[in-house]
Structures are given as structure tokens and as C-alpha cells.
Design goal:
- By secondary structure, the chain is of the alpha+beta class.
- The chain folds into four domains: about 30-230, no CATH class; about 245-360, Roll (Pdz3 Domain), CATH 2.30.42; about 365-590, 2-enoyl-CoA Hydratase, Chain A, domain 1; about 605-725, no CATH class.
- Helix content is about 40%, strand content about 15%.
- The chain has 21 helices and 23 strands.
- The protein starts with a helix and ends with a helix.
- Strands 6, 7, 8, 9, 10 and 11 form a six-stranded antiparallel beta sheet that branches. It has a six-stranded mixed beta sheet with strand order 13-14-15-18-19-22, sandwiched between helices.
Length: about 725
């Protein structure tokens, strides 16, 4: 028996070698199965020769090592490079590639499991082969799908039936991975059928629909075939960086000319901050006074799927394009028109798009400047003046400041001048409108707070090394001491939250509106051998010790929420750093105003129950909520037509409700909605922020008036008691 052992061992080795060769020769629908490679830290799942599209480059391995070292040494979130991180990066990478589970098969995901806990080791070794192998399989699957769709449109679209009771699941991110190609084919058949129904309901002819879809998917296939290794590397690096937090990003050499490519766009083009989101380009924020903001046609969360030039040029489908490529299409000479095909943020169906036109222009600093106006109100026969200061952003003309010019523009300097004018005009109270102010210069947020308080700390900044700095207002001068209300909403962030939080901590004014965005982190930009890394190295904390991160600022009086908090805000972003507290600093708040707040809330709630503007908002929000909760779309054309008619009827009623409140002529029937330029898919969000119709500002004015009256009554009572005591 002992003499047989070597033979058995030899036989076992032969079996293993033969098995390996057999496995190496098998492919799964053209995308090869696992193969062991001695050159990689992890087991290999490389495709066969015909489906190996991309290879890592030497310089990418060096950049990967550089990025990893920055993350380990300088990121605020101290995270070990271990199996826990490997699991997170693996999951995020798969999600970034196929977030809606439309390309990979379950067998692909099963094959990838051998990599789940070895990516940390690969990162330490600068080994990018495992993630390139996953991307090669992904590339193979995407090409298969697009080829299937093109064939389906050519051979089967004319035979689609539209009266069956089929349904399409809207969001598949938590659904099981398709088991086989037949299941994927059926899923994509339903998706194409849904696109056809949408186009039919929009009035397009069947032959035009077929031609449009064929061009769309042929364009996507052509774009997919143009991908290169830099696309793979950029995708993976950001899957890694965003495991640390959503604001840490790798910028490839094409993007690293700017702190953020979207900031470049904001200065010349449509005035919108953009970011890549899965295969789409998403609107993150509108630049105050920019063409997009002025048009009222785009909203944060909208996704751009097509770009066209002027009125007669074809719309180019940009699904799957890199961010810098989309930006290049959108940018152009001033006064020229760009057409955007977008998926509205509250659309329940990704195929339900709208086409908008925006005239390109530059954003002038003076157009972003703070502005004021005065409204007159009456209470108990007494007339009151309310000053409103609108602050779109925290700005400073750095060039003029560095040159030492005395007339340089900044938020604080402009607001200081406006407050002086309002005091001279003897206003009884001031509203600072911060809504949609995405932040800006931190120094300006600190200085602006100083206009309303004597002196003291404004904000704490804690660095990654644990050191905490306190930024203070050293100036004892107060520019405005009267009653103050600060309006906020979901879109205020960073510097705006610092100002609102400080006003709240000092009891200096009343914060009203909706919970803010919650962006309370500090980033720096680090140069790499090629490209750049934006990395989170600190957090903001209020002087009370509470972070503004994730939770943001919660108003003293809460208004109805227009934005979907599950989609918009720091808390909606994966891996966002948590809210926490540190020690508070010594500061001298003004007398407690909680008793006044109880009275103000009661008056507000009583009034808003019957207020036409708030009833309008509630009805519109209810409509949006219904759309957001929808999980499936019917593929029965008759049912879809009926649903569209019901939706248009609600839209018609909502628009006439707004017109009635405003005293405008009512629309006679639904057909007039087509020519109603002010009305959009979600009129609540469009019109609620409009200067002409703004129920929230109207209520803010009433709250401030209540505050003035309550304060005056208490002062009168106090004076009466003092006078009585003297006698």
C-alpha cells in the first residue's frame, strides 16, 4: 500500500491539471469562467481572449497605491484595510457597475465571490487585475444586452402586444440577480415595451419610435465599445474612496484641472453642479443666478440622459458616458441653446423623460449677490415693516481681496450694507432667506454671524488628527439687534448650516423651514502623480458640540418637506459620516426663547390648517408621495393611458388651485396645460420657491410678525411691572 501512495498522488495531480484545463476552456455565454493566475493576489476570473477588453496599466497601480496611502493616513474616518473593507469595496463596485441588476447573472455574482475578501490584499500589493477581470465580465454582459436589444427592436417590436396584464418592477436594486439569459431577455423585453408605451403616449408614431430606439441603443453600444482602461480605473478608485465617505473622490487626469468638473461647468454653461451617478449624469445643485436656476426647468436630483445643440440638432444619448464627456457637450459659447433630455427627480419611471432648453451664459458675481426688499404687514390695526435679505450663496471676490482692493465684494460686506439700509428704513424685523444656499466660503459664514452677535465662537472644526480649532467673531459691533428669522430648506449645506446653527445656539433668532442637507465635513485637494484626490479631513461642529454632519440643522418651526429625504441630503448618501457630538465651547447665549417658540408654533399650526398656500403645498406633496411609493409600472397601454389622464387631471386641479390663490385666470381645460409655461411635472417644487408665489415666505412673514408682537407685549408688561414697582 505504501508503494501505491506516490502513484495515487501523481494520479490526483493529473486529475487536477486536466480539470483546470477543462474549466479554462469553458465559457458562459461568451464570458469565461474562473481561471487561476499566479500573477494576481486574488483568484482570477479573467475572460477568454475574445472577451478580455481591458488590462491595468503600470501607472494606475502606482496611483492606486498612492490613493490608498492618503486614505489610510489622512482621511477623517480611520478605517483598517482588511476583510471588512474588502467586502464593502466589493459590494460597492458591483453596485456601481450594475446598480439595477440589469446585466450580471447570478452565476456571475457567484463567480465573483472568490474576490470578496481578497481586495484588501490586492490593494496593498497595488494589484488591479481582480477588478479589471470583473469589469471585463461586465463589459461582455453589457455588449450582449445591447446587441439583444438592437435585435429585439428589429425583429420583434412590431409584434409586441400592449393589452396584457404585465408589470415592470421600477427599482430592482434589492431584487434577486437574474438566473439565466432567458430571464434577462424577458426583463429587457419588458423594459423596451415600457419605453415604446411611453413614446406612444407622448404622441410619437410607431415607425418613428422604432427608429428613435434603434439609434439610442446603437449609440449606447458604440459608446460602450469606446471604453478604455482609464474608465475601469476611475470607476474602481471611486468605489474605494466612497467607502470612506461620499465626498472623497478620485479625479482622473481628465477631471483634475478643476477642484470639481461641475464647478467648471458652473462658471460657463448652464450653471449646475453635476456628478456621475451610476450610468447617469445627475444634477447635484443649481448655481444661484445661473441659467439653469433662472429657467426653473431643472431641479437637484434630475438626471441627464441626452444632450442636443440648438433647435435642429439631434439629441445625443449620454447614458453611460463619463462626466467630463457629458460636460463637454453641455458647455458652449454664451447665448447659444443647449437641449437636455432629463429624467425628473420624482419620476417613477426612468423612461419617462422631458426635453428642456436652456440658453448658455456665464454666472456674474453681482447676480449672486445678497439682495433685500421690504414688505408691509398689519396686525391689530398697526402697520409693520418686514425686511427680507436673500442670500443665494456665501461668496467673496478672492482676486480683489488678495489685491488689497477696498471695494472687493463679499457676502458679509453686502449684507452689512443691506442691514444698515434696513435699519435706516426702520424695519421692525428681518428675515434672512438661506433657502437653496449650498454654502461657499467658510470665513464668510463666520463673518456673517458676527453681524448679529456681539462676539464669541461661531464654529468648531475638528481635524483627522483629533485637533479641534474654534473659529470666533472678535468684533463686538452688532449691525442688527432686532427680531430675526432665518429660513432654511433641504438644499442648504455647509457654510449655510454653520450660520443657521450659530444663530440657533445663541438664541439670536428663530430658524424656520425644513431640515437642512447635513453636509458637515471638510475636504482638501491632494495632487497625485496623475490626477487628484479630494479627501475628507475634518468635520464641523456647532459651538453646542453638535455636529452639522448627516443630521444638519433642525428648524425651530418645521414646514412641509418638498424634497424626498430618501434621495436628497447627506443621510441619503451611502457611507456618509455619522452625526455625533464633542465638547461644547464656552459662549454666552441670549435669554431662552423656548416659551416664545411654543406660542409661535401654536399660532403657526392653527393658521396653516386653513391657509390656502399651505393647503396647496400639502396637496402637491401628497401627489409626489403617491408617485414615489409606486413599485411597479403596468405594461397595459389602456391602463397606462387612464393613469396618465388621472395624473394630468390632478396636475390641472393643482395648477388652477395656485391660480385661484394668486387671483389669476383659471385654465378652462387640461389642454391648456400644454401652453402653460410656468407649469411643470412637479408644480409644487417649481412654484413653491418662485418669487411670485411663495407660501412658505408668506408664512415666514406672519411668524416674524407674531414674534414681534409677542416680544413687544412682554416688553410692555415688563415696563408696566417696573413702573408699578417704582411707585
Amino acid at each position: 500500500m505504501k508503494f501505491l501512495q506516490p502513484k495515487r498522488i501523481l494520479f490526483a495531480l493529473v486529475v487536477l491539471i486536466v480539470s483546470a484545463l477543462i474549466i479554462n476552456s469553458i465559457s458562459l455565454n461568451g464570458c469565461a469562467l474562473e481561471r487561476v493566475s499566479s500573477l494576481s493576489t486574488c483568484p482570477s476570473i479573467q475572460s477568454d481572449k475574445d472577451t478580455v477588453y481591458f488590462f491595468p496599466e503600470k501607472n494606475q497601480e502606482k496611483i492606486s497605491d498612492e490613493v490608498l496611502n492618503f486614505l489610510k493616513d489622512y482621511h477623517y474616518k480611520r478605517q483598517k484595510i482588511d476583510d471588512v473593507l474588502s467586502d464593502k469595496v466589493f459590494t460597492r463596485y458591483i453596485e456601481d457597475l450594475d446598480w439595477n441588476r440589469l446585466y450580471f447573472l447570478k452565476s456571475d455574482i457567484d463567480d465573483f465571490q472568490v474576490l470578496k475578501y481578497c481586495l484588501d490584499d490586492a490593494l496593498k500589493q497595488g494589484d488591479l487585475k481582480p477588478v479589471f477581470m470583473i469589469f471585463n465580465r461586465y463589459q461582455c454582459r453589457v455588449i450582449e444586452r445591447l446587441q439583444f436589444i438592437i435585435s429585439l427592436l428589429e425583429k420583434e417590436m412590431d409584434h409586441f402586444t400592449y393589452q396584457t396584464d404585465e408589470q415592470l418592477e421600477i427599482d430592482r436594486k434589492d431584487s434577486p440577480w437574474p438566473l439565466n439569459t432567458a430571464e434577462l431577455d424577458d426583463l429587457w423585453r419588458k423594459r423596451i415595451k415600457n419605453e415604446v408605451i411611453n413614446l406612444k403616449l407622448s404622441g410619437k408614431e410607431p415607425d418613428k419610435i422604432k427608429e428613435l430606439l434603434q439609434k439610442r441603443y446603437a449609440s449606447q453600444l458604440n459608446r460602450v465599445k469606446q471604453r478604455n482602461s482609464e474608465d475601469v480605473f476611475w470607476t474602481y478608485m471611486n468605489s474605494l474612496t466612497q467607502i470612506f465617505d461620499p465626498h472623497t473622490q478620485y479625479f482622473s487626469p481628465q477631471l483634475s484641472e478643476n477642484f470639481d468638473i461641475s464647478m467648471k461647468l458652473s462658471l460657463e454653461g448652464i450653471g449646475a453642479l453635476l456628478q456621475g451617478s451610476n450610468e447617469y449624469t445627475k444634477i447635484v445643485r443649481l448655481i444661484p443666478a445661473g441659467p439653469a436656476e433662472k429657467s426653473g426647468l431643472l431641479k437637484p436630483g434630475d438626471r441627464i440622459v441626452g444632450v442636443g445643440q440648438d433647435d435642429d440638432k439631434e439629441i445625443v444619448n449620454v447614458v453611460g458616458w463619463r462626466l467630463d464627456e457629458v460636460v463637454e457637450l453641455i458647455r458652449g459659447p454664451k447665448k447659444t441653446v443647449v437641449r437636455l433630455e432629463v429624467i425628473p427627480v420624482d419620476s417613477v419611471d426612468d423612461n419617462n423623460t422631458k426635453l428642456i432648453k436652456i440658453t448658455r451664459d456665464t454666472v456674474k458675481l453681482e447676480e449672486q449677490a445678497a439682495q433685500k426688499k421690504i414688505v408691509t404687514m398689519e396686525s391689530r390695526g398697526i402697520s409693520y415693516k418686514i425686511g427680507i435679505v436673500d442670500i443665494p450663496t456665501f461668496y467673496i471676490d478672492f482676486n480683489a481681496y488678495m489685491e488689497g482692493r477696498e471695494d472687493y465684494k463679499s457676502t458679509t460686506r453686502d449684507v452689512k450694507r443691506l442691514l444698515k439700509e434696513l435699519v435706516q428704513e426702520k424695519v421692525d424685523g428681518v428675515i434672512v432667506d438661506l433657502r437653496d444656499n449650498g454654502g461657499g466660503a467658510l470665513e464668510e459664514a463666520k463673518a456673517l454671524t458676527g453681524l448679529f452677535i456681539k462676539e464669541g465662537p461661531i464654529v468648531q472644526v475638528r481635524k483627522e488628527n483629533g485637533y479641534t480649532a474654534t473659529l470666533k467673531d472678535p468684533d463686538k459691533e452688532i449691525d442688527y439687534e432686532g427680531p430675526l428669522v432665518v429660513m432654511i430648506n433641504r438644499m442648504i449645506a455647509s457654510a449655510s448650516e454653520i450660520f443657521a446653527g450659530a444663530v440657533q445656539d445663541y438664541n439670536r433668532g428663530i430658524i424656520i423651514g425644513t431640515q437642512s442637507f447635513g453636509k458637515g465635513t471638510v475636504q482638501s485637494l491632494e495632487n497625485l502623480k496623475k490626477g487628484q484626490l479630494k479627501i475628507t479631513r475634518g468635520k464641523f461642529y456647532r459651538i453646542s458640540g453638535e455636529s452639522t454632519q448627516n443630521k444638519g440643522v433642525v428648524p425651530d418651526i418645521i414646514f412641509p418637506e418638498l424634497y424626498d429625504k430618501e434621495k436628497i441630503g447627506e443621510s441619503a448618501l451611502p457611507e456618509s459620516l455619522p452625526w455625533d457630538t464633542i465638547g461644547k465651547v464656552r459662549y454666552q447665549p441670549l435669554p431662552e426663547i423656548s416659551s416664545k417658540l411654543d406660542q409661535l408654533r401654536a399660532l403657526h399650526e392653527k393658521r396653516s390648517k386653513d391657509d390656502p398656500g399651505f393647503l396647496y403645498l400639502s396637496k402637491g406633496i401628497e401627489r409626489l408621495k403617491e408617485a414615489r411609493e409606486k413599485k411597479f409600472i403596468s405594461l397595459n397601454e389602456t391602463i397606462r393611458k387612464k393613469e396618465l389622464e388621472e395624473s394630468e387631471q390632478k396636475r390641472f386641479e393643482l395648477e388652477n388651485m395656485r391660480r385661484a390663490i394668486q387671483g389669476e385666470a383659471l385654465l378652462a381645460d387640461i389642454s391648456e396645460l400644454e401652453n402653460n409655461e410656468e407649469d411643470e411635472l412637479t408644480p409644487v417644487e417649481e412654484n413653491a420657491e418662485d418669487k411670485k408665489f411663495d407660501p412658505m415666505m408668506t408664512e415666514a412673514e406672519k411668524i416674524l410678525l407674531d414674534y414681534i408682537c409677542i416680544t413687544s407685549e412682554r416688553m410692555a408688561q415688563r415696563k408696566g411691572i417696573e413702573k408699578y414697582t417704582e411707585h
